[in-house]
Amino acid sequence: MKLRYRNPALRELRDQLVRFAPREKKIQQADAAERLLAALDPQRSYPYAYLCYRITHYRPQEHARLLISGEEAIHDLRLLIEDLTDAAEIPAEQAGERVWTLEELAKYFRVSSKTISRWREDGLVARRYVFGGRKRIGFLQSSVDRFVEAHAERVRRGSQFSKLTPAERDWIVRRARRLAASGACLHEVACRLAARLGRSVETIRQALRQFDQQHPHLAIFPDHTGPIRAETRQKIYQEYRQGASVEELAKKYCRSRSSMYRILAEVRAAHILQLPLEYIPNEQFPRIAADAAWEAQVVGPPPPSEEPPKRAKLPPGLPPYLASLYEVPLLTPQQEVHLFRKLNYLKYKASRLREQLDPKSPSTALMDQIESLYAEIVATKNEIIRANLRLVVSIAKRHVGPNMNFFELVSDGNMSLIRAVEKFDFSRGYKFSTYASWAIMKNFARTIPESS
Fold it and tell me: Among 96, 310, 340, 379, which residue's Cβ finds the most Cβ atoms within 10 Å?
């Protein structure tokens, strides 16, 4: 269960409470978490310290400044309540009020177990109790009452559910085929037919999906009988990055807004898992991460040069865009060490955070952190590269032959420089220009004879 938590701090709190809180305290904390859950607004953000205090009556020192989105907190508090009651091993008859099983609740409201699961996603709090020696999901009467009060119309519509008759199914299929032929998508068709029949949208959608699965050669919506293909998911993500709204994408691909949000989060997580975060290890990094003041110094700007930068002498015959490279001042040894330490520490930190990312239920806050760090990584790497591009030009001028393209040679040398930035270990005490010059000349020694 803990792997499904979206926020690492709340997952850490879960581990502490489940492992160390006494049984009675776990029950009290689950009650407190449910009261807190009812007061949270998904559109707001809340300090971790506030959430922790409301549950435990303890003000934490760690994560004191962390803000957690309401949506993320609501998701994780539901899991926390289940985990605490699971660890407490409470017999249902000792709960102090009626406890409904999932099956009993579905039968009482005349809905399917899937509907109860959807209600849980929308705020119906579930706990874990021991029924006849076996742990199962249960619902306190008070939790059910709160949900019904907050979602009266939805519960009323769900309770009107009854199985579709064969005649109703035939009518739905005929009408759906006619609407689909005119360009309506599955979601639109389900909404229109649900209004006509006085049924829930999900009932109509399930009836159409069942028909398409049972009659693939006659399917009304053949592209909607399974999950969205990988290439379509990527396309959705790219369109979103280019400015398309979730509402526009949901309409275009005939999916719900919640499906779009889930797809976007999962594709974003997949992209983050592919980010190049390989770093040169250093024994200082764990200590830097544990010291906020030291970390602020490491990830801050490089120290200023003690002497004003000297005006570089331009080699003759350079075009303007190459001549402009000589306007970028060279790095001092102190600045060079600072930037390489910063580059690899940022990669180390982002890599450690990425280890916490669950690709099936990714945390938005965690992905924001990783992407912010990656933007700093790219900026730091580019700063190092810009300060050393003139090195490529000077080496290329020494290696260019009469029948060679100088600009292609510079481009090839730039790639060697970029690879050298990735592999340079600042802790060994060498100058980067020495290491990079060797890497560039070694590459030229291999490629120039091949091109000749």
Answer: 340
